Amino acid sequence: MKVLQYNIFLRPPGISNAGGDYKDERLQLFIDNVLQENGASFDLIFLQEAFAGYCGCCFGCSGRLDKLRRAAADAGLPYSHSGPQKHWCEGKFLDGGLLILSRFPIEKRDTLKFTAACHSDTLAAKGALHACIRLPGGQLVDVFTAHLQASYSYTPTALVDSTQRLQLTELHEFIVRCCEGRETALFGSDMNIDAMQPTTGEPQYQHLLHALKGEKFSDCIDMLLLKDQQNGNPTQITHPATTVKYTWDTDTGTEVVLDSYLHDENGDSSHGAQKLERKACRLDYLFLLSGGRERFVLTPRAAMLECFLTEQLTKSPYSAETTKPRGPVWLSDHFGIVGEFEEVGEGKLDDHFGTLSEFEIIEGVDKGGDGRVCAGCAGF
Asked: Could you give the 3-state DSSP secondary structure of residue 260?
């Protein structure tokens, strides 16, 4: 079972950075290269920022979402779940931008709309999606995706931190309710919690793990840290960056948008009188949750980052020469996380988890020569 977690960065019409977001161009690249080229290999895809738009007739967004769904169905992923839905009377003018695509039948769907939000996030129906899918072996597994409150400063403010904590409480209650008696769950999300942040990263990351596990789950496996967890050294963790490098004014702690996030990251370190710093973040996660070692439906087998450089995509009009200065260098401002799992039947985790040597964690180098992993990924 092959899973992709990805913030696709398809924001609504009228919302873009300097230089534009190339929404339609990037969507077509995603369809041509991720769905059609590799679609046969993906069984489950979690997407964030796949917005449906301001209203049902908004062609700019709803047309993209419909196009994405149709392309996924053509690639063998006909089952989907999207939301949470917008609600104008509640001041939610945008949907939540979440989408689950599945090769396997979805037996049950559920949606959570967060009650806590701040800043511009209050205008969107941010929350979480649940789908209970039936695996080829006949077993059921619960899968979730979510998108938490965004931080708009270099160090998260107290308001953002408290909002995320409230959302995590709601999220855990949602997970427990949806899983019912089942004890295995997959969770792919842009959590907007930067585990690489120098001062707050590790405490927030540990709180994230604790909030997801609660009292229901005994194991919370971070697929990008599989080696560290298997080595029994959770305190010696090097988090990989899962985003491009954003630009910050180090004097004010605010973000400076010099150009689209999708352009090349090279540039001046100063802008007028401002002192700038380019910094990547670890915001994206793919977790495998288990309620106990006696009932483990899936076992992890491999994990890797997919940077999706447009010049390395098989079907792309861009090359190293033509993408600068025009055209997107990246398919999104986030990188994808690919996880591979095996359906093992209900049994003891110890019987299936294996030793470290049985796992393949591809770290920051293009081992296969096909450009699937960017050697420049910060954090590796």
From this structure: coil
305-336: pLDDT as tens digits: 999 988 888 787 776 555 444 578 889 999 99
Q: Greater confidence, 214 or 235?
A: 214
* Prediction pTM value: 0.85
* Residue 252 is assigned to a structural domain of this protein: no
In a domain, 378, yes or no: no
Q: Residue 367 domain-assigned?
A: no
Task: Report how many domains make up the chain.
Answer: 1
Instruction: Indicate the SS3 state at residue 16.
Output: coil
179 in Cβ contact with 185 (< 8 Å): yes
What's the CATH number where 307 sits?
A: 3.60.10.10
Q: What is the CA radius of gyration of the chain?
A: 20
Residue 209 lies in a domain: yes
Rounded Cα–Cα distance for residues 141 and 288 (Å): 11
Comparing C-alpha atoms, which of 17, 9, 7 is closest to residue 247?
17
Asked if 119 and 143 touch (Cβ cutoff 8 Å), the reply is no
Q: Cα–Cα distance between 101 and 190 in angstroms, integer?
A: 16
The domain containing residue 132 runs over which residues? 2-243+282-362
Is the per-residue pLDDT at 57 higher than 50?
Answer: no
Number of neighbouring beta carbons within 10 Å of residue 173: 12
Of 74, 60, 66, the closest CA to residue 21 belongs to: 60
CA distance 188 to 73: 20
